[in-house]
C-alpha cells in the first residue's frame, strides 16, 4: 500500500515536530542542570532550529515542489474530521493520491 501525498507530508511533519519538541526539552533541561556539557545544549538548540526550518522549507508538493507546511502541520495538529486542504494550491494535484 502506497502512502498518499497527505500521509507522506504528515509523517515528515510529525517527525520534525517531535524533533523540535525533544530538542527544546533538552535545551531547557540544560539551563536547569549546569552539569550537562555545553555541546549537548548547542546540539539541542541546533536541532530545534533545523526542525523548524525543515517544517517551513522541506514539506513540498512532490509534483511542483511548492512548499506545503500547512498540509503537514494539519495532519499533526488537527483531528481527522477537520476540513483540510484537498489539493496543491499551485499544480492542483489531489493530496489524497498516491505520492
Ligand atoms: Zn503541487
Ordered list of secondary-structure elements with their pairings:
Blueprint: H1 5-32, H2 38-57, H3 69-77
The chain binds zinc ion.
Task: Compose a concise summary of this entry.
Helix content is 58%, strand content 0%. It has 99 residues and is mainly alpha-helical.
> In percent terms, what proportion of residues is strand?
under 5%
Helix content: 55-70%
Look at the structure and give the mean pLDDT. Answer: 94
The low-pLDDT segments are none
Radius of gyration: 16 Å
> What count of structural domains?
1
What does this structure look like?
The structure is a single chain. The chain is mainly α and 99 residues long. The chain has one domain. The chain contains three helices and no strands. It is elongated, with a radius of gyration of 16 Å. It binds zinc ion. Zinc ion binds next to loops.
Labels describing this entry:
99 residues, mainly alpha, 3 helices, 58% helix, elongated, binds zinc ion
Amino acid at each position: 500500500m502506497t502512502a498518499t501525498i497527505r500521509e507522506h507530508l504528515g509523517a515528515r511533519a510529525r517527525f520534525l515536530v517531535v524533533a523540535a519538541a525533544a530538542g527544546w526539552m533538552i535545551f531547557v533541561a540544560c539551563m536547569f542542570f549546569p552539569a550537562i556539557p555545553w555541546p549537548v545544549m548547542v546540539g539541542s538548540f541546533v536541532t530545534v532550529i533545523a526542525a523548524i526550518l525543515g517544517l517551513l522549507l522541506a514539506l513540498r508538493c512532490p509534483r511542483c515542489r511548492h512548499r506545503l507546511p500547512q498540509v503537514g502541520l494539519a495532519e499533526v495538529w488537527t483531528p481527522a474530521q477537520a476540513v483540510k486542504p484537498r489539493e496543491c494550491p499551485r499544480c492542483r494535484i489531489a493530496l489524497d493520491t498516491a505520492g
